[in-house]
Structure formats: structure tokens, C-alpha cells
Amino acid sequence: MKISLSVPVYNEREALTPLFEKVQRVMRAHYGNDWEIIFVNDGSHDGSEKLLDDLASKNPEVKVVHFRRNFGQTAAMMAGFDFAQGETIIPLDGDGQNDPEDIPRIVAKLDEGYEVCSGWRKDRQDNALQRNIPSIFANKLISAVSGVELHDFGCSLKAYRAEVIKGVRLYGEMHRFLPIYAKWHGARITELPVNHHARKTGHSKYGLERVLKVVMDLLTVRFMDRYMLKPMYLFGFWGFLFLCGSVGFTAWALYMRTRGYFFTATPLPMMAIFSFMTGVICFLMGLLAEMVTRTFHESQNKAIYMVRDTRNLDGKTSAI
Q: Is 56 left (phi over 0), alpha (psi -120 to 50) or beta?
């Protein structure tokens, strides 16, 4: 099969039929029957499940994966990749804001020798204060930290060669960093402006709190990139700084004692030291927890989602 489309769905019932009809029209015009679309129902409770089952019963190119509960967008995207059979895998939002007309254009970019083509919502139709402005700063930060120069990491519409993306395992909310993971696997990445439509149904599942999550996830990605195989470089560096600080503070305290000040004259130096150390320890413990989580999942080949049922996938409840 040439192309697999992966669509995470969470309470998007009203948008699904128009989205599928447009996808079907575009894909049949350009690829005949050599494609599939995998809807991953991420625990929807608005009637999306029944609608997806109806679509699958009438259209053999429609594959459906029903999760047992809501696991989040990253897990839904990962399931779509796991079940995909195409040589090219394209994630697509289920809210209808991505334009299926852009699919042939981004696939054509892969034919130029790239393994990843990322969509860029150049004229983004979202709330400027809540979505667009924070997104601009977040994308610049991610590009600067990761070294992968893209304008729009958050755009779901991207095209991946299957051999690149199949080796990637995602956890937490790391789906926005897929191009970075692909880059680690040696993928050549390009970018293409794509259309973006205003949401017509439902409401966004994200708010301003997503900015903080992006920053925390970015710190994790940076750590995984630079220190996953050599964590002692990071921990040893901080340990050396603490030792130097300990020597410096001791020397300072002894000097102040010779000037007639008692060690207990003020609690402020001790408070500053303990606050700083506690913050750093918490941060480093968070990074250690990330490593332990990945080791737990990957060493035991555990999936980050549980499938209750499938449609048009020969009864498979796991792609692993």
C-alpha cells in the first residue's frame, strides 16, 4: 500500500463525515485505491464510535481502532503508526482544520529525496492570543534548542517515510517533536506551507497551559538528545559545581567568622542554598524518571495504549 492516513479522534463526531468525504475524493483522484485511512478513537463519548463503525462498514479503506479509554493525542498517533501498512504515513487532525488537498503536495516532496515533509500553517486560522502567538515563540524555541529548523512543529499534517517513523516510540505528549526524533534516525526533513481552516465544529482541546507542557517536554527532548547515553556528563557537571560552591561557601563563612560574625547571624544564606539545591534536585529527578519510564516501556515492549476493538483490521487488537 502506498499511503496510510492516521487520524486521532476525540469527540469530533460532527467533523468526521465531511473530513472523510473530502479525503476520499482527493485520495481516489490521485492514488486510486492504493491508500487507507486509520481513525483512532481515543475514548470519545459523543457518538464518534458509532459513526466511525458505520464509515468502516461502507468503506473498506476505512480502518478503525477503538481505545478502551482516553489516552491522549500522542498515544492515538502512535497507534495509527503501529497499524499503518503504507509506505508513507500521514497524520491528519480529526477536526477538519487540515486540508486534504495538501496531501498530494507533501507526498510529492518526499519523492524529491526527503524522508519527512512537515506542514507549515503559514496563515493559521486560530485564536491569535491563545494559539498563534504562543505557537510562534514555542516553535522558535524548539528550533533553537533542537537544531531542527521548522516554522510549525505543532502542525499534525506531515508526511513520513514508514521506515523512518516505525522505529520511533512516543510517550507522554511528545508527538509534536516527531521531526526531531526522525532527525535522530537520520531523516532528511523539509517544510511546505499548507492550508489551514478555521474550526467549524467542536472546540479546541488545548489552551495556554500547553505552552508550559511544551517547555517541559522540550527540556526532556534536549536531555534525551545530548545525555541519554552519557548522563554522567550532566550529573557530573552539576556535582562539580556543587562541590565548588560548597568549598566557596565554607571559605566565605570562615572569613565572615574572623570578622566577628556568627554562623547563625542570618538564615538567608542557608535558605538560598537549600532552595537552589532543592530545585536542581527536583529537575534532575524528573529527568531520571523520564529515563526510567522509557526503559520500562521499551525493554518490555509495552504499548502506551489499550485497544478494545478494531474495524477492517482482521480483528487485530495490537500492531506489535
A: alpha
Please say whether the beta carbons of 100 and 203 come within 8 A: no
- Residue 96's φ and ψ, nearest 5 degrees, are 85, 5
pLDDT at 209: 63
Tell me what the mean pLDDT of segment 36-56 comes to: 94
Q: What is the dihedral of CA 71, 208, 128, 181, to 10 degrees?
A: -50
Q: Does domain 3-206+304-311 have CATH number 3.40.1380.10?
A: no
Radius of gyration of the chain, Cα coordinates, nearest whole angstrom: 24
| 108 within 8 A of 144, measured Cβ to Cβ | no
Give the Å distances, CA to CA, from 210 to 100, 134, 201.
Answer: 26, 9, 21
Count CA atoms within 13 Å of residue 68 on its CB side.
7
**Per-residue pLDDT tens for 269-319?**
777 777 788 778 877 877 787 777 667 666 656 677 788 888 888 756 655
**pTM, 2 dp:** 0.76
Cα distance between residue 31 and residue 81, in whole Å: 20
Domain boundaries, the chain: 3-206+304-311, 226-299
* 52/58 Cα distance (integer angstroms): 10
Q: Of all residues in the chain, what percent carry a pLDDT higher than 70?
A: 83
Exposed/middle/buried for 102, CB within 10 Å: 0-12, 13-18, 19+? buried
Q: Which one is predicted more confidently, 160 or 233?
A: 160
Report the amino acid identity of residue 312. Answer: N
Using 50, 70 and 90 to split pLDDT, how confident is the model at 56? very high
